[in-house]
Amino acid sequence: MTTTPSPAHSTHTGAAGPAPDAVPFSGPRFHVEPAALYREMRRDHGAVAPIVLDGDVPAWLVLGYREMLHVTSDPVLFSRDSDLWNQWARIPDDWPLLPMIGRKQPSILYTVGERHRQRAAMMSDAMEAVDPFELKRHAERYADELIDAFCGFGEAELIGQFAMLLPVRVLAKIYGFREDQGPMLVKAINDLVNGTAEAISGQQFVARSMAELVALRSEAPGPDVVSRMIEGNHHGFTGEEIIQDLMVMTVAGHQPTADWIGNSLRLMLTDDRFAASFTGGRHSVAEAMNEVLWEDTPSQNIAGRWASRDTQLGGRRIQQGDLLVLGFAAANADPQVHIEGGRMRGGNNAFFSFGHGDHRCPFPAQEIAEVIARTGIEVLLDRLPDTDLAVPAETLVRRPSPWLRGMSELPVRFTPTPTLTPLGGDR
Predict the structure, then answer these.
(1) For the chain, percent helix, then strand, then coil, each to nearest 5?
(2) Which end of the chain is more exposed for a tag (fewer CB within 10 A), N or C?
(3) Strands of 23-24's sheet, edge to edge?
(4) Residues 292/298/301/304 CA torsion (nearest 10 deg)
(5) How many Å apart are CA 176 and CA 223, to the nearest integer?
(6) What is the DSSP string of 93-118?
(7) What angle do CA 68, 69, 75 make, to 5 degrees?
């Protein structure tokens, strides 16, 4: 049962600074043992906990499942308009979290009301037109090409050599990028989402890439997502708005999907329940992927929502302009969420991994991510059925980000196998 914060814990963040009991939103525990950390935060603070971001910037972390539903279901009270933030006066131009939170960006992430619905429809229509069979063929082709690069060695590092390369290559293909551009986006996207010192330069690289693509497809349309967005722009969105939306689609489409692949492979290689997966048990791929979205979701914490007026949430006094970080992983693990005495999992899809409400991940984008991730894993199972971890499971390391949860490396070994295509040959 959720603890009701005591009066001493009901302090608001305000514009002056973080609460005295605020939890630093950084550090190794977010990477190593987030589930235990969220349990402690829920115990000590209740369903909504005060946190402090880099630079001593205050915010709230929503931990409760019901509170998450409340926040994401009320886009007026808990707005996506970042201009509402009461902390902008203390945010420097080089703040590393700016790419994750956004300031006056003409992006769909920070657009509200009817304008948001129009932009979301334009994006969804462009992605919904992707042929699922063609998408699967692209995913199979690129998965095979990536596996060909290491299958003869009997060992590989599946994050850097596979999971981190597959989604962006498929997305680049269906968006209309040149073949050689996909891999170049990976580092920039990683820098952007990790909130490192290179976050802003990563954001700038992605923005330049999108601007070049929009300019190209405006002059030479093709059978791709970007061309369909430009053609379907019936509401006068500017080129900059389309560029910003493409950045959102690319970052949100690549990084969580790469982590979904990596986290699912880690589960299948370390959990006895999935021991048969790499010896022909394709049926368990979907089970592993679903469990990851509940227990090890790539979208761990998302910024955010801003209170449009003073309000109450989870026993907390939330001030107008306060930032609420959406703790998807913590809400998924809320002990109040039960079905017949057990946590919702298995085939249940009521997790927050794709968001909820008006700003959830569009359904066509969810389907694209699932096809890429599942196809990649299945191709790997088919090609390298005796894959096993090359290091003890307890030594595996997570990428250092409190926002997206993924593996830094996943070293494996297997019986060397020939490539499907001889070097320099044709498919």
Answers:
(1) 50, 10, 40
(2) N
(3) 23-24, 48-53, 57-62, 323-326, 302-307, 78-79
(4) -120
(5) 8
(6) TT-TTHHHH-SS--SGGG--HHHHHH
(7) 95
The residue to which tokens 């006066």 are assigned: 89
Q: Round to the nearest angstrom and report the end-to-end CA distance of the chain.
A: 58
Q: Facing residues of 305 across strands? A: 324
Beta-bridged to residue 139, according to DSSP, are none
Q: Is the dihedral of CA 191, 193, 194, 196 positive or negative?
A: positive
Beta-carbon contacts of residue 286 (< 8 Å; ≥ 6 apart)? 374
Strands 57-62 and 323-326: parallel
d(CA 265, CA 159): 10
Contact 260, 289 (CB under 8 A): yes
77: Cβ–Cβ under 8 A, 6 or more apart, which residues? 307, 308, 309, 311
Cross-strand bridge partners of residue 61:
49, 325
Distance, CA of 167 to CA of 298 (rounded, Å): 14
pLDDT score, position 3: 40
β-partners of residue 279 are: none
CB of 58 within 8 A of CB of 22? yes
pLDDT, tens digit (0-9, with 9 covering 90-100), for 278-297: 655 556 888 899 989 988 99
CB neighbour list of residue 95: distance below 8 Å, 6 or more residues apart: 54, 55
Does pLDDT of 260 surpass 70?
A: yes
Three-state SS letters, 349-367:
CCCCCCCCHHHCCCHHHHH
C-alpha–C-alpha distance, residues 214 and 217, integer Å: 5
Residue 56: Cβ within 10 Å count: 11
What sign does the dihedral 408-413-414-417 (CA atoms) show?
positive
Output Rg (C-alpha) for the chain, integer angstroms.
22
Residues 5-58: tens digit of each pLDDT: 433 333 444 456 778 889 999 888 888 889 899 999 999 999 999 999 988 999
Tokens representing 395 are 């030594």
What are all long-range contacts of 111-120, with beta carbons under 8 Å and residues at least 24 apart?
A: 111/80, 112/75, 112/79, 112/80, 112/81, 115/235, 116/80, 116/358, 116/359, 117/358, 118/235, 118/237, 119/235, 119/237, 119/241, 119/245, 120/358, 120/362
The helix/strand/coil state of 193 is helix
Q: What is the pTM of this model?
A: 0.87
Helices first, then strands: H and E counts in the chain: 14, 11
**84 — pLDDT class (breaks 50, 70, 90):** very high
